[in-house]
Amino acid sequence: MQGDIPNRRQFIIAVAPHTSNFDFLLTVGVIWSLGLKASFLAKRSLFRFPLGYVIRGFGGIPVDRDRKNGVVDDMTTHFANNSKLILGIAPEGTRRAVTRWRSGFALIAQAANVPVLPAVINYRNKVVTFKRLIEDVTDADQTLAMMQQAAATGCGRSA
Prior knowledge:
Number of helices: 5
Radius of gyration: 15 Å
Distance between the termini: 20 Å
Structural class: alpha/beta
Shape: globular
Strand content: 15-25%
Strand order of the largest sheet: 3-2-4-1-5-6
Number of strands: 6
Largest sheet: 6 strands, mixed
């Protein structure tokens, strides 16, 4: 690991690139090794009995991805109701290669007024790097661009 985790009670960790299911295990391992408890978003269908108990135990928060703007509103409320919340998100929104990232993490950061910590995975070098904290989240497009720039140094597992 390289870089620093901010001493903050609330922030979003944006993890990229997201190319494999193994990314989740790696991220959980890194977060736990740092003594942190982080939450993550997962589709609501994964929270059925009995798997739902396990996913919630790992910090999972169910989301209905079919509701337009519902996730941003839900997570803004989550941040408002929890004085300590670290939320991990993969900005690509999928494990496939994409030409356009999803802006949800930046919109959540903007609405909840919480900073974004870029966490860049480089499987080739076996390093996870925490880049400079993005403090000014008032412009979601700028936050997205800054995250993409930070992630350019990453290397996915499939590479």
